[in-house]
Structure formats: structure tokens, C-alpha cells
Amino acid sequence: MKVGLVGNQNSGKTTLFNYLTGMNAKIGNWPGVTIEKKVGKIKGTEHELTDLPGIYSLSPYSMEEEISRKYVFEENPDVIINIVDSTSLERSLYLTTQLMELTNIKVIVALNMADILEKKGIVIDAKKLEKALGTRVIKISALKETGIDELIKEIGDKRDLDRTKIFDENLEKTITYTENAINSNHKRFVAVKLLEMDKRFVELNTNEIDKQREELSKMYDTDLEEVIATERYSFIEKVKKECYTKMPVPESVSSKLDKVFLNKWLAFPIFVVIMFLVYYLSVGVVGTATVDWVGEHMDAFAEWAGESLESVGTSEILNSLVVDGVIAGVGAVLGFIPQLIILFLCISLLETTGYMSRIAFLLDKLFRRLGLSGKSLIPFIVGSGCSVPGIMGTRIIENECEREMTTMLVPFIPCSAKLPIIALFAGYFFEGTSGFVSASLYFLAILVIILSAFVMSRTIFKHSNSSYISELPEYKVPSVKYVAKDVWDKVIAFIKRAGSVILLCSIVIWFLLSFSFSMEYGVDIENSMLATVGHKISWVFYPLLGENNWGATVSAVQGLVAKEQVVSSMAVISGLSEDVEEGSEIFAEGRIFGSLSVSAAYAFMVFNLFSAPCFGAIGAMKRELGSTKKLLKTVGFQTLCAWVLGTIVYQIGSRIENGTLNIANILIILAVVAIFVWRIVAIIKKKDDNCTTCPYCDKCK
Fold first, then answer.
1. Residues 279 and 146 in one domain
2. Are residues 147 and 279 in the same domain?
3. What is the CATH number of the domain that holds 52?
4. Could you say which DSSP state residue 579 is in?
5. What's phi and psi for 107, nearest 5 deg?
6. How confident is the model at residue 464 (pLDDT cuts 50, 70, 90)?
7. 353 located within any domain
8. What does the radius of gyration of the chain's CA atoms come to, in whole angstroms?
9. Is 245 helix (H, G, I), strand (E, B) or coil?
10. Is residue 229, in this structure, part of any structural domain at all?
């Protein structure tokens, strides 16, 4: 039996899905978590359960609603479980009234969060609600796991109730006429959509239906879509009066907390402090302490591996490959896992408590001025873990221009793959203030995103941004089970990358460093294949490093494969397998990276933060942008932006270090920046014949 799980965002769908199937989907308190359906079997049964995206209606104004409606019409489920947030009955029942119009599908209304009704002083008579709707109604708590057995039992019961007709006599008469005039599944639902002039069913329209619609519109003297929506809300109000009672209760804890976290004057400072603490904890004192511990064990392992290989008579080449290639490369990245765990833990706690929803609400007003909306913040938050799901998360944005702009800007957010770069450089060059430096890069990313969006919205993507509607969930105590699972999944994904992509790249780097183009092994590193190529292109990085450092150049290029590979590549180039986490050997005097200054170190971090993302993220951008030309422009914009920012940082920073900065220098730098920005905008603004989102096409005019 096919069962669809449908409901509003933040209604507890994913929690119920996890319990029913035993799977562990991601838990979050912001919309868009289940943008793609998830499928599993209900424990102890043969019922196939599909978790659909959180939606507010079956009118396909967004990607989520389109997916849900497509499932209903193409998958033909036997049962739909409509999970309803019982604390927000009026908002939730709008979708229910549409589900009631689906014929040949049993609808079960699961009143979720029944356990917190009493705390809110709410009493809902489930029997009266069931009678008013003409559908089965069961009270449950997905979190407390109550009422679930009754729900599973009801799924297998094929009996259903007669659905209540919710519209007035005139509308019902026209709907019945339209039903008889069409040949389609779910005739009542389609008939209502035809009266609303839904373009998805335009092929079923006839002159007679048009005539009926026009007569009805004249009768109401307004648009029928508005009439139908008004009728739905009138019905919901009537139902609510019959079965819903609200008793006076003291002000909730969430309301009290929101007076602080969403305070007009305190909200932004609190947000800044919280995000600073996230990076200070993960990269600063706590993170560094854990890395030291891991580093000691990696040192011991590398030493043991080298001695073991020598004791069994392993050749020098194989010994070097394992110790200087594999362990130096992969070990350098794995050493940062403690810091990643702390970062993932902090982000997961912010998500599960409900604070992330407040951030989206808080920044919505600012984002709207930039041509974005609060929905754009969701991919940015997801992107702090990994850019790939962050880019895929842009699908929740209805407006095409806004979606493409967000796709271009998501890689600017420091993802977990960039943390090893930040931690390595900040820990060595800014010892004692590494937490502050790491946090400064996060806020620099936000500033660059804001400035980029501001320019884009007034040059390339001239459009009206989409609306953002979301009810703020209650603050919740984080579930240890879900937080642990979320952090575990992210860490395992990171380790898998280290064990596959980074391992392979480390071996390739070792090979290019160990051999010359004449295939001679053991040559001086300056005569290796990698150094030869690096010297040819190192001039590109001279303006932001102050020197032709081929090692830094090839390491930055390696970041296109995977950002973690930057640190791995530097470790292999240094020919080391110990102490790479602190940089005490990578940046040792006399070595390839030993001549980098503090300004060059910060500029190098800035470049890797804003340059084109890894191949995985580039592939995701290609899918979302839908055009190779747009992708190339995006990658070019990101890389050029990174180079310009890195150059500015170094040129200003080095002059501050040397004490030679003056007004003339500042004016020259600003002039160069202005010219670059002007040229970037001019290049991107050039009309694309295949473009559907530029200011020259009809859609954007």
C-alpha cells in the first residue's frame, strides 16, 4: 500500500517519518528540509511511506508544491497522512481542505504536537473535527511517540468517511458541472483548479467551462481564485469554532526568548556574538586543544608506519608514497576532524533549537533590499556544512532570478571543507587570536555576499523578489539522538572524502613531486614535474602573496578538486607527515611556505574562501543554473572576485606591516577595485542569447 506523508513546514513530518520507517532523515526547524521525497517502509508492515516536501497548499507556486502534486497524480497513493500542527490549526487546515478534494485516496488527519496543547491552553475535540471534515482524525505526538500505533492501524483500514462539501451552493453547482465535463483523475480537485484557471490543467478546459466560470465571476464580482480561497478560510473558521477551545495561559517561554533574540536593538548583536562563538569554539581554544591531541597520535602513527615498512624491507619509493604521500596528505586533513565536530555540533544545535528560523526572519528585511528573501538564507545556512546541498537547497526559492543569484553566492559561505585551511593558517600566523581571525572571515563572507547581491540586483537580476512566509517554531530542547546522528553523518561524509578524493589527489601530488618530466625519481623538489608547472603559473598569485610561490599556487589550484586538498597538498609538498595541523613544519623557515608573511597568509585564506568551489559544487551549480555559459560566468566571477579581494588584503596588509601605507596608496587601490567591479559587471551584463533572467528579456522587464 502506498502512503504519502503531507503537511506544512515545521509540522513534524520528518520526525514522524523517521519513527515510522526507522530511517534518520535530517531534522531542522526551517522550511525546505525535505525538498525531495524520501521513501521507506513502515516498520512491521508492507506499507511504502513517502515523505513529501513541506507545503502550505497544492497550488504549484513553488518547487515543493509541484513535487507534492506530481506525486499525488502520478504515483496514485492509497492513503495520505496529512500531518497537522495542532497548535496552528487554522494555518494547517487550508492544505487539508485541498486534500479532501482528492477522490479515491483515503485521507487521515494526524493532529501532531498533541502533547504541547495543554501547555498552550488549547483543547481540540478530535471527534467533532472528524465529523466536520469527513476524514479520520487521530491525535499523535511524533516527538513523544504517542498515538502512532492507532495511526498505523488506521492506515490498513480501507473504510473512509464521506468528505464534507465546503463551498456555497453556487460554487458547488459549478464544480459538479465541471466534474461531469472532464475526464481526469481526482475530478473534484481538477474541477476546482479549472475554476481557478490553473495552467497545469488548461488542456481539459472547454468553452462551456469558460462560460460557467465567467458567469460565476460576474455573480461574485471578483476573481474566482479569491472566492475559492475565501470560502476555504470561512469553512476553516467554522470548523475551528466547533472543535477548538483556547484557554488563557501565561506567556510562553518562546515568546519571552523572542523578546530578547528578536529585539530591535539586540537581535543583530546577539547573532554576531553567536556566530563568533561558533567559530571561536571550533577553531579557537577548544578546537586547537583537540587538534593537538589528534596531531600527537598522527605523529606516532606516521613514525610507526615508516619504521614498520623499513623493517620488512619495503623499497624507498613505496615507503615515501605511504608516509610522505598518503599519511601526510590524508592525515593532515583528518587532524582537523575535532574542529569539524565542534562546528557541526554548534550548527546542529542552532538548527534544532529553532534559532535558525529566527535568523532567516531577522535577515529577511535586509535580504529583500538586495533582491533576495529570507528563503535565500536557508541555502547559506546549509552551505556552512557543505556547498553542494546548500546549492541544491536553492530549489525552494520560487523566483528564478533570486534562485540563480543565491546559487552563485552560496559557495562564498565558509563550508566545512574550508575550515582546515582557515584553522591551519589562523593557528600558525595568528596564534592566540585564531578564533577572532576565523570569525572575521565568516563575517567578511557575509559582507561580500551582501555587496555582490546589491550589485547583481541592480545590474543583472532586476526583478521583484519572492515573498517569504514562515511561522516561527517554538524553541525546543535539542534532541541528543538527532544532534548526534546529524553530526555523525556529516563527519562520516567528510572522512569518506578524505579516504577517496583526497587520498587519490595526495598520491598524484606525491608522484608529481617525486619525479621529473624525464621520469627520474628522487629529484630535487624544485626540478619535479609539479614545481616546473607551478613556476609557470605562480605569477598569477604574486599580487596577493608578494612572491612567486609555486607551492601555494598549485595548492590553491588543487582546491578545485576539493577545498580540503589545499592543506593536504601543502603537507605533501612539504614532504612531512607530522605537526601539519599547527603548521610548525609546513611554514618552517627555509621551506617552500616558510617565506609567507602574515598579510600573505590572510590573503591566501581569503582567496580560497571566495574562489570557485570544488568540482562537486560546480556540478551542482551546473544543474541548478541549467546552462554551461552561466556556469562559466559564475565560476569566473567567483575566482576573479577571490583574486581581487586577496590582492586588496595583501596590498593593504603588507603596507600596514611595513608602515608604508598612505592616502595615495589607498586611492590607487580603490581606483583599481572600482575598475575591476565595473568590468566584471559589464562582462556579466552582456546579453546571453539563451538567458531567461537577464534585464533584457521579457520575463525580467
1. no
2. no
3. 3.40.50.300
4. S
5. -110, 125
6. low
7. yes
8. 29
9. strand
10. no
- DSSP, residue by residue, 638-660: HHHHHHHHHHHHHHHHHHHHHT-
Environment class of 290 (CB within 10 Å of its CB; exposed 0-12, middle 13-18, buried 19+): middle
The number of domains in the chain is 2
Residue 222's pLDDT band, with cuts at 50, 70 and 90, is: confident
Strands 48-51 and 38-41: antiparallel
At position 612, the amino acid (one-letter code) is A
State the Cα–Cα distance between residues 23 and 25, nearest whole angstrom: 6
Residue where one domain finishes, among candidates 452, 483, 514: 483
Q: Give residue 34's pLDDT.
A: 43
Report which residue type is found at 524: D
**pLDDT mean across residues, the chain:** 80
Q: What is the pLDDT of residues 583-608, one digit of tens each?
A: 456 777 767 888 889 999 999 999 99
Q: 428-433 long-range CB contacts below 8 Å, 24 or more apart?
A: 428/582, 428/583, 428/584, 428/586, 428/587, 428/601, 429/583, 429/587, 429/596, 429/598, 429/601, 429/602, 430/598
- Domain end call among 132, 156, 180: 156
570 assigned to some structural domain: no
274 and 152 share one domain:
no
Q: Give which of 577, 524, 532 is closest to 551, Cα–Cα.
A: 532
Residue 646 CA to residue 295 CA, distance in Å, equals: 30
Tell me the residue range of the domain where 277 lies: 270-483
For residue range 171-186, list pLDDT tens digits in order.
999 999 888 888 888 8
- Name the residue with higher pLDDT: 97 or 329: 97
Position of cell 547583481?
A: 456
Give domain status of residue 600, yes or no: no
Task: Identify the CA nearest to 141 among candidates 110, 172, 167.
Answer: 110
Is residue 671 pLDDT above 50, yes or no? yes
Residue 54: all three cell numbers together: 513541506
The DSSP letter of residue 141 is B
